[in-house]
Design goal:
Layout (H helix, E strand, L loop, with lengths): L5 E7 L1 H4 L8 H10 L3 E8 L3 H11 L5 E5 L10 H9 L3 E3 L1 H15 L7 H5 L2 E3 L3 E3 L8 E4 L2 E4 L3 H11 L10 E8 L3 H14 L4 E7 L8 E8 L2 H17 L5 E2 L6
Parallel strand pairs: 1-2, 1-3, 3-8
Antiparallel strand pairs: 4-5, 6-7, 7-8, 9-11, 9-12, 10-11
Length: 260
């Protein structure tokens, strides 16, 4: 069996850590990577501090097949991700010829003056030496890849456009499949021991238990989610989960509970 490639996401930004901005990218990235057969195994939120960014990038790029970053590649002084990635790889932070030419032409044409491509916008065309561009269909400023590190925007709509460009380059493995069974009125404590036995019988799957409260006007309960790359194993495991729920007097229902 081919090993599933792994990934780590670094969410970079003081505004996320302060609570001012709520991250809206993690779930989308995890889902899209899973469809590509790449397992997101870790996500960290780190500040706009050069030593932290450099050290963290150098740590995780050794551990994972892919590292994705979001945030910190805009035109302002606190957008320091790009230059920190250059420092992490020990290469110069310099104008990227393709990005520079593309952005200069865009701003000059749009605004009718060479001054439109100002120093702030030039920062977005300045990247680690050897970087390759990640285009997006929303704005002219690209992300980039260097080594196994893929640097994306933090703005969700732009990040999603960049990710669509990036994903075909990443290879991947068999898609990560998922199935959910929900038991209304079932508590985790009642199902825990039996669920542990199912997990032991299917060590290649990730079997998770997720309680909920007051969802969809139907009270409390628990959802059991099985994830893996083998459809037959997921079906067999969930058949045992269904039998377990039924033994506790609960008829399992397919899928997630509705929102509260």
């Amino acid at each position: 069996m081919t090993a599933t490639p792994t990934a780590c996401l670094l969410i970079i930004g003081n505004e996320v850590l302060s609570g001012r901005t709520q991250d809206a990218n993690l779930a989308h990235i995890a889902r899209k990577l899973g469809e590509r057969g790449i397992a997101l195994r870790e996500a960290r939120v780190i500040p706009d501090v050069p030593e932290t960014i450099i050290g963290t990038v150098n740590e995780v790029r050794q551990k994972f097949a892919h590292v994705l970053t979001t945030g910190g590649i805009g035109p302002t002084h606190d957008d320091i991700t790009s230059e920190c990635i250059a420092a992490a790889f020990g290469v110069p932070w310099e104008k990227q010829p393709e990005a520079w030419a593309r952005m200069e032409a865009f701003y000059v044409q749009r605004d009718g003056t060479a001054e439109a491509f100002n120093a702030a916008r030039q920062r977005m065309a300045t990247m680690p030496r050897g970087a390759t561009l990640i285009d997006n269909a929303i704005s002219i400023a690209p992300g980039f890849t260097i080594g196994n590190v893929h640097v994306l925007a933090g703005v969700p709509r732009i990040m999603q456009a960049m990710l669509e460009t990036l994903l075909p380059r990443l290879g991947g493995g068999p898609p990560i499949l998922s199935r959910t069974l929900t038991g209304y009125g079932l508590m985790e404590g009642a199902i825990a021991a039996g669920l542990e036995e199912v997990q032991k019988a299917f060590p290649g799957l990730d079997l998770g238990s997720y309680p909920f409260y007051g969802r969809g006007g139907r009270g409390n309960g628990v959802s059991i989610v099985a994830k893996g790359t083998e459809a037959a194993a997921i079906e067999a495991a969930m058949a045992r989960v269904a039998t377990l729920m039924q033994s506790l007097g609960v008829e399992p229902e397919e899928g997630e509970p509705p929102p509260a």
